[in-house]
Amino acid sequence: MVNRRSVMAGLACAAVMRPQQSFAATAATYEDAVRATWAPLRTEGGFEEIVRYATLAANSHNTQPWRFTLGPRSMAIAPDLLRRCPAVDPNDHHLFVSLGCAAENLTHAALALGLRPTLRFEGSAITADLENASVQQSPLLAAIPRRQSTRAVYDGRPVANDLLRELERAGTGEGVAILLITDRKQMAAITDYVVEGNTTQMRDQRFMEELKAWMRFNEGEAVATMDGLFSRTSGNPALPRWLARPLLPFVFTERGENDKYRASIGSSAGLAVFVAEHDDAAHWVEVGRACQRFALLATSLGLKYAFVNQPVEVPRLRAQLATYLDLGARLPDLVVRFGTGPELPKSLRRPVAQVIA
Ligand SMILES: Cc1cc2nc3c(=O)[nH]c(=O)nc-3n(C[C@H](O)[C@H](O)[C@H](O)COP(=O)(O)O)c2cc1C
User: Fold this and answer.
1) pLDDT tens-digit profile of 103-152?
2) DSSP string over 16-66
3) 19/343 Cα distance (integer angstroms)
4) Taking 60 as the threshold, does the pLDDT of residue 357 lie above it?
5) Sheet holding 115-122, edge to edge
6) Nearest C-alpha to atom 20 of ligand 1 is from which residue?
7) How many CB atoms lie within 10 A of CB 125?
8) What is the DSSP letter of 356?
9) What is the mean pLDDT of residues 19-36?
10) Measured from the CA of 58, which atom of ligand 1 is nearest?
């Protein structure tokens, strides 16, 4: 049995590691690390607890590409450029979307601690000015520790129209529109873009090397770094690295993955495409906020969601998808699927001390 002290020792140990390092042995088990990461909000925890809740947001490859700075009445979220993904995200589009997701969580956590945040984006950082307010606890706050990107096959059940309208409202942001697509023919057409994007990416050596660098093949690796894509969070088994690496080319194949994308989108109730008015960092942050709000509302309604973002990540397909969706001069920023499905194991987050500058 691992006690609280050894959990903290393990997390402190993880805190000093570099992102891609893999240490097999730390004191904390994966289950302990999940409990520590996803613990309910401790309202007595102050600004650091707001930061912890912000880090529970969705973020590309689970790189957690953020640095938080705390002021007496404010906090700022800036990019951690050491955690960029130049192959999949050369212009930091996903990085700024990830910061926006964190900013959305931050607003709900701050309100729950009696602080009203006013957000602004300046330079490359999001600053939240905080003023005293009455405590507000919303269903979206309660959904923060329950949300996950669920890369499973769903059960195919449709979502009722009134809930779709609620999701649409939650996913609309400042300068950000959401398109909800539930028509099967349109979903099939977008699936073709996902499959073509996945094929392009799996044939791109730089993309694959970067992706593999963020893969965590077993609990030990996931806990050692507290970041990255742990195999079990995608419904895959945990394996020792010496076995997983040579097996990867046989089990992680273009055809196998494309079949999975067809099955998983086919099992979903619909797709949501987020579209900003302009293709710049300020709008990408707003896209992140809108998507995170959508995800939190979906979670509170008992729904699951997962990103199928390949058509946005391959520039040629991003332009084609824009034409297909008749977006004019705008471009799609995110593609996610949603529906009813099972819970998968949770991803981890680095401890707060590691993300405060
Ligand atoms: C901008 C952005 C792009 C993402 N793209 C993908 C994607 O293409 N495929 C995928 O499976 N997950 C994608 N994700 C989900 C992240 O991998 C996920 O949020 C991260 O691993 C943490 O897991 P969690 O959301 O379950 O907490 C994306 C997330 C963000 C914010």
Assistant:
1) 999 999 999 999 999 999 999 999 999 999 999 999 999 999 999 999 99
2) TS-TT---S--SS-HHHHHHHHTPPP-GGGHHHHHHHHHHTS--GGG---E
3) 26
4) yes
5) 66-70, 74-79, 125-132, 115-122
6) 62
7) 17
8) B
9) 68
10) 19
CA dist 120 and 127 (Å) reads 5
Write down all domains in the chain, each with its CATH number in brackets.
1-357 (3.40.109.10)
Measured in angstroms, how far is the CA atom of residue 122 from the centroid of ligand 1?
25
Residue 14's pLDDT is 32
User: Rounded to the nearest whole angstrom, what is the distance from the C-alpha of residue 44 to the centroid of ligand 1?
Assistant: 30
What is the DSSP annotation of 120-179? EEETTEEEEEEEE------HHHHHTTT--B--S----PPPPHHHHHHHHHHT-BTTEEEE
CA 308 to ligand 1 centroid distance, Å = 9
Residue 28 has pLDDT above 70, yes or no: yes
Q: Compute, in angstroms, the gap from residue 341 CA to the centroid of ligand 1.
A: 17
Q: Ligand 1, from 53, 59, 347: best to mutate by most atoms within 8 Å of Cβ? A: 59
Structure tokens at 265: 């989108």
Q: Whose CA is nearest to atom 4 of ligand 1?
A: 60
90 pLDDT more than 50? yes
Residue 15 alpha carbon to ligand 1 centre in Å: 22
pLDDT at 275 over 70: yes
Average pLDDT (32-49) is 96
Ligand 1 centroid to residue 164 C-alpha, Å = 22
Question: Relative to the CA of 101, which ligand 1 atom is closest?
Answer: 31
**Which residues form the pocket of ligand 1, taking CB atoms under 6 Å from any ligand atom?**
58-62, 94, 97-98, 101, 148-149, 151, 229, 306-307, 309, 347
Strands 215-216 and 229-230: parallel
Q: How confident is the model at residue 27 (pLDDT cuts 50, 70, 90)?
A: low
CA neighbor of 21 nearest in space, from 241, 236, 247, 234? 241
